[in-house]
Write a structure and sequence with these properties.
Shape: globular
Distance between the termini: 45 Å
Helix content: over 70%
Radius of gyration: 19 Å
Oligomer: single chain
Length: 301
């Protein structure tokens, strides 16, 4: 059984890992855009989970870590939540702009902070933390505000799906903190989540009547491999290591960096323009993360 001790603040190792994770998740926006050219979104998410669970199972076998040590029903719940989250996110892109969906997904730190406040010990929401979260979220809004379109009923459906994905992400993490941390390793947490998400994603793909594969080329195949191995296996394994060791509210604040790195990736790889809004958002996001991860100044007297 793992230790349930959680570190109160993010140390240098956690900051370095989180920054790397956010960079990978940001670049993943480019990879998803490429794979969507030939593979249906939700079906592709299912393929990604298949690749990740195979890689993880092999890694756990080499490390001699049992695949199903305990808490199987809890793992099933986590898989259902995770699969539903990504189904909502990818389905939202059928009805709303990617920018709107991205902003709403990264409202998840608010759900994380609220959930941690009410359901996790020692991870309370304070005015200081709230201020940092607000600054970072404003940075994300500034970055993507140029893409806002006129609201329509169709757009509202997509926005609600993306917002639901944010809530499901937070719910998944809070559930893991309460039910799996201290009972199974972070390897098992990811294995359960990924394995049990596979049937959920494929069933939803069938329900949406997606055409699974339109065409394939080298770029699409490499994009899917990146999503499955680098993102869903390596980066998620690192993420769950952090989830098992550090406060959720502080970890989730860092995820605001992901859309910033996504835009940087698009500028570099897709030659999209670098704007003043990108620079301003970088300042606000960085400031927000700094505020969340520092202690409030002591008042005199």
């Amino acid at each position: 059984m793992n230790s349930t001790t959680v570190k109160e603040v993010l140390d240098l190792k956690a900051v370095a890992i989180l920054t790397g994770i956010c960079m990978l998740w940001g670049f993943n926006a480019v990879a998803i855009k490429e794979s969507n050219l030939g593979i249906a979104p939700v079906f592709c998410a299912g393929i990604r989970s298949v690749i990740a669970v195979m890689a993880l199972a092999l890694w756990m076998k080499v490390k001699k870590i049992p695949l199903f040590p305990s808490n199987l029903m809890d793992g099933l719940v986590v898989g259902i939540l995770f699969g539903s989250e990504f189904a909502c996110l990818y389905a939202s892109l059928l009805y709303t702009t990617g920018s709107s969906a991205w902003i709403l997904l990264y409202a998840s730190p608010f759900f994380h902070a609220l959930g941690a406040h009410f359901f996790l010990k020692g991870d309370r929401l304070t005015v200081h933390k709230s201020t940092g979260l607000l600054l970072a979220f404003i940075g994300v809004i500034v970055l993507l505000s140029k893409n806002f379109g006129a609201p329509t009923w169709t757009g509202l459906v997509g926005d609600l799906l993306a917002f639901s994905a944010a809530a499901l992400w937070a719910l998944t993490t809070i559930f893991i903190k309460r039910r799996l941390v201290g009972s199974v390793s972070f390897h098992n947490t990811l294995f359960y989540q990924t394995l049990f998400s596979i049937p959920i994603l494929f069933l939803i793909s069938v329900f949406l009547k997606e055409t699974p594969i339109d065409h394939l080329n080298a770029v699409i195949i490499l994009s899917v491999a990146f999503q499955g191995i680098v993102v869903a296996f390596v980066s998620y394994l690192l993420w769950f290591y952090l989830v098992h060791e550090y406060p959720i509210s502080r970890l989730s604040a860092f995820t605001f960096l992901t859309p910033v790195f996504a835009i940087i990736s698009c500028v570099f790889f897709l030659h999209e323009p670098l704007t003043w809004k990108l620079l301003l958002s970088l300042i606000l996001v960085s400031l927000g993360i700094y505020v969340v991860n520092t202690k409030p100044p002591k008042t005199a007297g």
